[in-house]
Write the structure tokens for this entry.
Amino acid sequence: MKFFNYFIDWFVGGGFIVILGALSPLAGQLMQIKKEHAQTTQAKEAWTMAERVAATVVDSLVSSQAGGKEKFAKATRTVQKIMDGVGYTVTDKVAQTLVQAAYNQSPLTPAPKKEEK
């Protein structure tokens, strides 16, 4: 019984505190890694969402009677407005890139005609 009491006293009084002290930096590093992973995942999901928004906007403007430049400008503004509405800021350049990529990938938009030489 005396041994048991000494063991508990040592474990709680010295060993456990030492173990916690040794593991606390590792816990901080683990939390930092988890935070970075969460930010990366969130950025990937935001980009995927922006691509889907751009594809939807481009597809919705296919039947519009406006010219190509007007459709492109309207699609760019719409993508920025929608993404701002959900809390992600999209610059003009990024919105233009998203819209152009969506236009190139859309099955509803006509393929450009190749010039014969």
